[in-house]
Amino acid sequence: MDGSNSSHQWIAGNIEEFYRALSSCGEGVMRDHAGHLDFSRWIRDVIQDVLLAERMRELERAVSQVSSPLEVYAIRDRMLKALEDRYFD
C-alpha cells in the first residue's frame, strides 16, 4: 500500500510496515484510503488474509459514517488492534 500526507510518502511491503504506516496516518489520509477501501484491498492482495481484509473493510466503511477527527482516530485504533490481535499477540 502506498499513501501520503503533507510530510511524507510511504509504501508498505509487509504487515509491520503497514502497521507503522497506519499508526502515523492523519485524518485526511485515513478518510481517503478508507473511502477507496485501500487498506482491506492491500491486506487481501499483499498479505492474502481474507478474514482480516473483511474486518478491515467493515472498519473502513465506518470511517465514512463519522464526522469528527477523534472518531476517525478511534476507528484507526480499532484497525491497529485488529492487526495486533491477528499478527502481534
Task: Describe the protein in words.
It is built from five helices and two strands, in the order ββααααα. With 89 residues, the chain is mostly helical. The chain has one domain. The protein has a two-stranded antiparallel ribbon with strand order 1-2. A hairpin with a 4-residue loop joins β1 and β2 (9-11). The longest helix is centred in the C-terminal third of the chain and has 20 residues, at 69-88. The radius of gyration is 12 Å and the shape is globular. Residues 2-8 have low confidence and may be disordered.
Task: Give the arrangement of secondary structure elements.
Blueprint lengths: L1 E3 L4 E3 L3 H9 L3 H9 L2 H10 L2 H14 L5 H20 L1
Antiparallel strand pairs: 1-2
Helix pairs in contact: 1-5, 2-4, 3-4, 4-5
